[in-house]
Amino acid sequence: MAGPILVVDDDMFFRQLASDLLTHNGHRVVAVENATLALEEAARTSFDLVITDVVMPGVDGFALTARLRERDPDQEVILVSQRTDIRGSEVALRSGAADCLSKPVNANDMLLAVDRALERASLRRERTQLRDENLEFARFHNLHQRCLELLSHPDLEWLQERLTSELAAICDAQSAALWVVDDRGDLVLRAYRGLLDRQFLAEKMSPEGPLSGRLREAQPWLARDERSSVMYVPLVASGEVVGLAQLSDPLSGDFRPEHSRDARLLGDFAAVGLKNGRKMLALQRLGLRDRETAAYNLSYFTDYASKEIYKARRYGRTFSLLTFSIDNLPLVRVRQGAADAKKAVRGIIKALSKIIRDSDVIAKASDQEFYLLLPETDFFGALMFVRRAVAAVREEPEAMEVDQRLPLAMVGGASTFPKDGEDFDELVHRCRRRMDERRASLQRRLMLDGLPFWDEVDLLLGTPNSPRLPVDERSEPSRRGKVSDVLFDELQAEIAREMMRDPGSRGLLYVGGPEIRTDLNIAAGLESAPPDLASRIYLLGRRVDLESHPALTPVFLEGDDRIARHEFILWLSENAAYALIQRRGHGATWGFHTSDTAVVDGLISKLQAEYDLQPY
Question: How does pLDDT run across 355-364, given as a tens digit for each residue?
Answer without folding.
Answer: 888 788 898 8
